[in-house]
Amino acid sequence: MKFEIDLNKLNDDELELIVQLKKRGMLNIGELAICPKCSSYQVIRNGKRKSRYKTKQRYKCKSCNYKFTLNPSKNRYPSDIRNFVIKSKLSLRKTRDEVNKRFNINMSHVTVLSIKKLG
Ligand SMILES: [Zn+2]
Asked: What global pTM score does this model have?
């Protein structure tokens, strides 16, 4: 059975639940692909790209048409901020508030999720 979830329509708590279910392998919705450009979840599979060692799934963002592979960009935020987000046991929203207060930045909860998911 196939169904689609529009992740953009979910609130923080519902997103959090999906991440938790996915972490425990209880939800099979494929990769939680997020557009690196506009942070949209409206992402479709767009063929595969073969590199020397493995084949990477390519994605295309339906919102901004940006094409990308799930190759986490390590340098979007400094590692201390990323580590704080990755290690945080708080909810997405609380992590976002805490990280913004602590580092004086303006990160969205979607970016928090993206860092948690993609590293
Ligand atoms: Zn996009």
From this structure: 0.41
